[in-house]
Specification:
Length: about 500
């Protein structure tokens, strides 16, 4: 009886704190120029720093890094009987009613976490902004929260992970951003209701697993977007948690995962955007929101394509978020990694189409970054040291590129593209310069760029000089009717080669 009374008092206290947060949110919106409707939010301006940065680091790190099996969706699939994760979990840790997901939290110690080392690595990689996941679908907050006890400052590492990363990021003149994947927690671990598990007998607001409903949709199609209700208390909690991140850490981007496009979410999305944009005006900072699918109206925020790209230039700035590993966003034992030159090719392709690349890495549970992640980041950094002038602060040109290799458009297409050939080029532009990136340097050292030929219908200006970025010796070039020919010897690399063309 005493236990139930204590639980009731704790829940009442949490609800009072939630009400205080919601009241503040309403006041900020009421007193600010941005209101919670699309007409008002359409006046949002994409930050100049973001359009110039081009490259950031995403960080998926959390309790799911402890089992390090399958992917960051381990807490979902471990409660689905018949899955690999379920079999792995029960054979490794025992029955779910005796060892559930929450029991990994004390094992998530982050004992070797060194934010200075992390940020130093990201800076060497050439990243301009950092985006740690503030809360993933599992519901464990990687920051100090007033709204929940299930956060990294109070359990597990007992450290304010976001706060430590923000301080180190800004010390190094980089931009701090954050992501929230909280919304999918609504159904993420709902499988625990269908089997014997560690689901509490009385699951209520404030519990780690709350609400863990079964999926309100069928096949992840249109049914996953509309046609069902979502508990208002959950949406209010989502709004308060997200605004708490804004107020405590002032991220310059807030990124959201896919399920925010659901119909029931729309009023809360508008409220969050109005609150965030009004707060940024108070700070005197430029901020934006990343969204997927059609969660936000056109021009109210920046579109993000998960593990995917565009087939052509977008007039609106956009972002591709992808990972160094093909199979997972978090660290898992046996991750299937991309090659460094593949990541660099993606960066160049994305920037040529008016986009930004957000590249994810997955630290181990103890806070160390795997060697392969480091290897890829270091390779990208070395390439940017030589070629960064054609990436940072660049603009898309008249054409994104030329050549036979086309990029498939949409989510989850980043590993479907064919390998680039010696006939493939991608272009960027700065006043007075065109940067042509040879996506695969030919063995004979001769490249031919058709769009810059004398009779080209795309470019009719004057070419004053051609040089290869980072080359020790001048290259030779020749302007022909059909193409610009550039010749250089001694180049041996799998990565794109930057060609700087001075024009007048």
């Amino acid at each position: 009886m005493e236990e139930h009374k204590l639980q009731a008092e704790q829940m009442e206290n949490r609800l009072d704190i939630l009400k205080q947060h919601l009241k503040k949110i309403d006041e900020v919106i009421e007193n600010g120029p941005y209101k919670a409707h699309w007409d008002s939010l359409a006046f949002h301006k994409v930050p100049d720093w973001y359009k110039n940065a081009k490259f950031g680091i995403f960080i998926h790190w959390g309790v799911f890094s402890v089992p390090a099996y399958g992917s960051e969706w381990y807490p979902r699939w471990m409660y689905k009987e018949g899955t690999d994760e379920y079999r792995h979990h029960t054979s490794t840790y025992g029955p779910l009613e005796q060892f559930g997901y929450k029991d990994f939290i004390p094992m998530f110690k982050a004992e070797n976490f060194n934010p200075a080392e992390w940020i130093n690595l990201f800076k060497k990689a050439g990243a301009q902004f950092i985006m740690p996941v503030a809360e993933h679908h599992d519901g464990f907050q990687m920051y100090d929260s007033e709204l929940s006890e299930w956060c990294a400052s109070k359990k597990g590492p007992c450290k304010d992970i976001l706060g430590l990363l923000k301080a180190e990021t800004e010390k190094n003149n980089m931009t701090f951003t954050a992501s929230s994947h909280r919304i999918e927690h609504y159904w993420f671990m709902g499988g625990m209701r269908q089997i014997k598990s560690d689901l509490p007998a009385n699951l209520h607001y404030g519990d780690f697993y709350w609400p863990s409903y079964e999926e309100p949709f069928g096949d992840m199609g249109q049914d996953a977007v509309q046609g069902f209700d979502v508990e208002p208390l959950y949406m209010e909690d989502w709004l308060a948690r997200t605004c708490e991140i804004v107020d405590k850490y002032r991220p310059k981007i807030m990124y959201f995962d896919w399920w925010i496009q659901v119909n029931a979410m729309k009023p809360y999305l508008k409220k969050f955007a109005a609150y965030y944009y009004n707060r940024a005006l108070e700070w005197g900072e430029e901020v934006t929101i990343n969204f997927k699918n059609d969660a936000f109206m056109f021009e109210c925020a920046v579109r993000d394509i998960e593990r995917g790209q565009l087939a052509d230039i977008s007039p609106s700035f956009w972002q591709n978020d992808t990972s160094v590993a093909k199979n997972s966003w978090c660290y898992t034992i046996g991750n299937d990694y991309k090659e460094p030159h593949e990541v660099i090719c993606d960066l160049v392709d994305v920037v040529s189409k008016n986009g930004s690349l957000l590249l994810n890495i997955g630290p181990r549970a103890d806070g160390t970054i795997p060697d392969k992640d480091k290897e890829i980041l270091t390779a990208v950094g070395r390439w940017l040291e030589t070629n960064g002038e054609g990436i940072y602060g660049s603009h898309y040109w008249k054409k994104y590129g030329e050549g036979p290799t086309l990029t498939k458009e949409g989510h989850y297409t980043d590993i479907l593209r064919d390998s680039f050939t010696s006939e493939d080029f991608r272009f960027t532009y700065k006043n007075g310069y065109i940067y042509a990136f040879a996506m695969k340097w030919p063995e004979d050292g001769i490249v031919r760029i058709h769009l810059l030929g004398r009779k080209s219908k795309t470019f009719n200006g004057v070419i004053k000089n051609v040089q290869i970025l980072g080359a020790k010796e001048d290259c030779r070039y020749m302007l022909c009717d059909e193409y610009l020919t550039v010749m250089a010897e001694g180049i041996h690399t799998k990565a794109p080669v930057g060609i700087k063309i001075t024009i007048d």
